[in-house]
Amino acid sequence: MVKYPQITIYIDMQSEQGNPISILGEAIVALEEYGVDEEIRGQLIKEVANKDYNHLLQTIEEWVNVSYIKAKKI
């Protein structure tokens, strides 16, 4: 179950947006914009620190909805 189901982030895995720092940043910003306390946001960072990429994705998906998109090339 997603902790914050009212929050959705959109990630293009085929761009630089698909790197771990960018994905975590998107989640943190979305949580902040929704009004989630800094201490709570820090818990997410601690949960993914020093873990692998798959763990990061899985953990973020437990916190917010993630929509994986494919950007159209112009």
Q: Descriptors for this entry?
A:
2 strands; 74 residues; 20% strand
Structural class: alpha+beta
Total discrete domains: 1
Instruction: Give the number of helices.
Output: 3
Query: What spatial order of strands do you see in the largest sheet?
Result: 1-2
Query: Mean of the pLDDT scores?
Result: 94
How would you sum up the major sheet? 2 strands, parallel
Quantity of strands, as a count:
2
User: Which bin fits the share of residues in helices?
Assistant: 40-55%
Question: Given the C-alpha coordinates, what overall shape results?
Answer: globular
| Cα distance spanning the termini | 37 Å
Give me the Rg, rounded: 12 Å
Layout of helices and strands, plus pairs?
Blueprint: E1 4-12, H1 20-34, H2 38-48, H3 53-63, E2 64-69
Parallel strand pairs: 1-2
Helix pairs in contact: 1-2, 1-3
Task: Give an overview in words.
The chain has 74 residues and is of the alpha+beta class. The chain has one domain (4-69). Helices cover 50% and strands 20% of the residues. It contains three helices and two strands, in the order βαααβ. The protein has a two-stranded parallel sheet with strand order 1-2. Helix 1 (20-34) runs antiparallel to helix 2 and helix 1 runs parallel beside helix 3. The longest helix is centred in the middle third of the chain and has 15 residues, at 20-34. The radius of gyration is 12 Å and the shape is globular.
Summarize the structure.
50% of the residues lie in helices and 20% in strands. The chain is α+β, with helices and mostly antiparallel strands. The model has no long low-confidence stretch (mean pLDDT 94).
